[in-house]
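Same chain as my last thread, 295 residues:
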Amino acid sequence: MHSINAILVNSFTMDGKGGNPAGLVLNADDLSYAEKLKIAQAVGYSETAFVSRDAEVDFEVSFFTVTDEVDFCGHATLATFSTLFNNRLIAVGKYRQRTKAGILEVSVEEDGRVVMEQACPSYLQTFEYEDIAQLIGLPIDILSSTQLPIEVISTGLHDVIVPVPSGYLDKLAVDNDKLSEFCEKHNLIGMHVFELNYSESEFTAGCRNFAPLFGIPEESATGSSSGALACYLVKHVFKDNKSHDFVFEQGRAMGCASKLSASVKLNSGQVTKVEVGGFAKQIGQLNVSLINGVD
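reply #2:
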């Protein structure tokens, strides 16, 4: 039996509070899939990141929920590079991480803010209002009043982006069983629901994210979905073929408000870069015992 140290980090904090907790294991080169999954389950957060050496880029990073491996995780990426920086394992600068979503660039700024590149968007499919209304407990006429489409967009993970009218974000009643069945049927990770804020607000939109198929009833900050939402807004709301910077709030309904920034760069109307950024704070550690020979 041997022990693995998992670092516990809150990502996308707002003024040092809130955020979304992630686990982080450094020097994970010799860990098997089963061992990583057991560690992620012991940590119990929505995702745990595992950092390994890579011959071509700076790091290889894999991401595990409590049920399975996923291709990418924004808040666990933020946790990873913030922790590396705060422990002086890396300096200010740009780095490249290998993930199952591709090789992605991550920048660390002098104040400790981490900005991560995401894959350029894939616009995959749309759904009718009646397909979604029953999943989130809103009447069809309320959901359709936004006159905005419901679309699956991926900048690393397949999420369905769902707009709701202002004032309805906190009124959702998500059916976890139906949403899990829906996501499994359509090869989705989860659902990212947002309401646009008024222009005087610090935040472009308030958001909620649900991924019960992967053991996440609700998540307080979702980096990958924030990149997808930023691409959605550029395509369907602003539609001016210009680059945009956004700030999103997430986790308010969970009493764990988080702040996420996202930017989309365009060239000749095409998205050329998607970035999501924020701050993180280490909150503790957990030692996980592994039995030698776990497959």
